[in-house]
Amino acid sequence: MQEQIKVVFRNVLQSIAVENFIHEKVAALEKIHSRIIGCQVTIEKPQKTKEASGLYRVRLDITFPPKHEIVIKKESKISGRYQNLVLLINSAFKIAVRKLEELKEKKCVRAKIRSRRNRYDNLTFHSFPEK
Q1: Is the confidence at residue 113, as pLDDT, over 80?
Q2: In a domain, 24, yes or no
Q3: Cβ(41)–Cβ(21) under 8 Å?
Q4: DSSP one-letter string for 85-123
Q5: What is the pTM for the complete model shown?
Q6: What's the pLDDT tens digit per position in 46-82?
Q7: Which residue in 9, 47, 57, 95 has its CB near the most CB atoms, within 10 A?
Q8: Residue 115 class from Cβ within 10 Å (0-12 exposed, 13-18 middle, 19+ buried)?
Q9: Environment class of residue 78 by beta-carbon count within 10 Å: exposed (0-12), middle (13-18) or buried (19+)?
Q10: Which domain holds residue 79?
Q11: CATH number for the domain harbouring residue 100
């Protein structure tokens, strides 16, 4: 990865365990798509209200060439502190894995189509005059 992994905590206490978990998940993403340029993970908890007492939001911004970006937003009403937050982060990264695999599959299909076109481009047709 060309840039550092950015982990942003908003209204959530920073946890080294959560950060390490995120770094492991990003390393797994790099195995699927080796050209990832950057990754930003934002974890936030809205300000306390009765409706948002256990609400967490996770946002993944993954960038890779040429100017592609995958944004995944995951939101859940969960109680508890970090264990359920880790489950939410894991769920967001599973979606990211699925998106990267779909993108890789589309790229392979385009390459096959391109190779078929190139096969016919090299053929030359001669027309012979009739006798």
Answers
A1: no
A2: yes
A3: no
A4: HHHHHHHHHHHHHHHHHHHHHHHHHHHHHHHHHHHHHT-
A5: 0.73
A6: 776 555 556 788 999 999 887 788 899 988 765 554 5
A7: 57
A8: exposed
A9: middle
A10: 5-120
A11: 3.30.160.100
